[in-house]
Predict the structure of RNA polymerase II transcription factor B subunit 3.
Amino acid sequence: MASRENGTPRRDEDEVCPICKSSRYLNPDMRFLINPECYHKMCESCVDRIFSSGPNACPVIGCKKTLRKNRFRTQTFEDIGVEREVDIRKRVMRILNRREDEFDSKLDWDNFLEQRETMIMNLVTGVDIAKTEANLRKYETSNLDSIRANQARESQEASSFLEQQSFEQEQARLRRQAAREEYEKEHNELLAGRESFLSRLAAGTADDATNLAREGQKILLKKSSARRSEEDRLRQKQAALRGESKKSALGKTALLSGAGDSDVEPSLIKGLKKVSIPEPEKPYDPFGGLDLGKKDYYVLKDHYPSQWLEEARKNTTMAAGGFDIKEYYSRTLFEAFAGLGCFIDEEVAKRGGASETFGMRKGIATQGAAQQAVTGKPAEDIF
Ligand SMILES: [Zn+2]
Ligand SMILES: [Zn+2]
């Protein structure tokens, strides 16, 4: 039986399959596989034989775990204990994958790391396994969105470098291919041209020879312009490729920002920043909420008897110029009554001003209002 817990298996035991007892000495190509269910080691042919027809019990005596063939894999670490710890660590880290920028303070982040480490060690050493597993499952179900978002961020960070590298390689390959194609094309054209030249020279006269030379000049010119357009085409193609890669990157970030955190405060991890969704911006109001059509203290009439205004009302030149007497009524009345909604004592009380300045200001304001009411002219600016 393969020893799991003692940590240092003997060398010869390592080379013999505990199930079929075939040894590496006789079969140098033999590969050992393990299953993270129970970490019992067996050879590849045993796995094929026992688990090809579906899930089956582990053939190691005393182990009652049900294993599936697709979960078998090669062992990465020689020590099966290390292998198991690394697996557990990977699993826990995949679930508790919060990042430092998600915490309010460095202390919270440190506490989280310690908490995660404690959970991993509990699972590795077999302390409070049921409770830890329950906590993990609960956290996983309630924080699915944030786990997915962080996983995406991690994989994006890991892949962006590789992506860039492969993109550059692809670009270089395309450039090389284009250059090779062009060279071949040119070479073939040259050969074909030379052949036709020779045949025409052989058949023609001296005049033909000068004509042919002129034609040759033309072909050369045509070729150089063709090369230029080919270069342009290549450059455009590369620009298009670059644009596509940028677009895909943008799409990814959009996806990331779209995956918001769950609004349920996780009970397992403490000190996480609150995620606030900004309110949608309201349309701009140039009057700051003031309703110009609202009349609390007066009713606007169509006509007011006034000798002075009567002239302006009847003057057709003024009307033609755009003067509107009703507009004038409306504005003048609005301005005349505008101050009535303001209660200075309330405002001053709110401001928390001293009582003597309050009294003085009230006096001046009342005086100003009285003057305005009598003369109909606005008083001097009192402030
Ligand atoms: Zn075997
Ligand atoms: Zn087993």
